[in-house]
Amino acid sequence: KLFFTDYGNAAKVERCDMDGMNRTWIVDSKIEQPTALALDLINKYVYWLDIYLESVEVVDYQGRRRQTITKGRQIRHLCGLAVFENYLYTINSDNLSILRIHRYNGTDVQALARLDDAKEIRVFQKRTQAAVRSHACELDPSGMPGGCSHICLLSSSHKARTCRCRTGFILGSDGRSCK
């Protein structure tokens, strides 16, 4: 799945398959300007910063069990968001510090370090790295990903795929070759 935020005409948190199909709104009320998103891949939670409402919130992958982690004026200066164990990590763009926020008790906030110029933060953890298994976009005998001549996108599962073409090309009637 691909998770993303939008704060155009109607602010929301959404998800879709990697090929853009099955687009689903997860959060579409009491949200104004979601600017950063983080996933808890193990427990299947979506966290986001709303700099207009000055809040950090969380829902499960279906948009249920919504909770506010923390609120306050300091939120408007945050950018980037990552989850690791019991904490959320973010960057305070006001003083360029890395902040650690307890994700179950939003009042426990600590500045960890200062950086020169950061806008995003990522945490890499072995448990959240998916094990490589066979999937629909593996190279076929002729070296084409998933049998697609240009781009192979995983669909609703690791066994399904959609072929797409680079700009200026059109997908052929076979659903795999680009012309």
From TrEMBL:
Pfam families recorded: FXa_inhibition, Ldl_recept_b
Entries under SMART domains matching the protein: LY
GO BP terms in the entry: canonical Wnt signaling pathway
Membrane-crossing residue ranges in chain numbering: none
A molecular function (GO) term: Wnt-protein binding
Start-end of each LDL-receptor class B repeat: 1-43
GO CC annotations on file: plasma membrane
Xref: InterPro entries: 6-blade_b-propeller_TolB-like (IPR011042), Cueball_EGF_LRP_Nidogen (IPR050778), LDLR_classB_rpt (IPR000033)
Protein's recorded name: LRP1B protein
Protein source organism: Hypocryptadius cinnamomeus
Lineage: Eukaryota, Metazoa, Chordata, Craniata, Vertebrata
Gene: Lrp1b_0
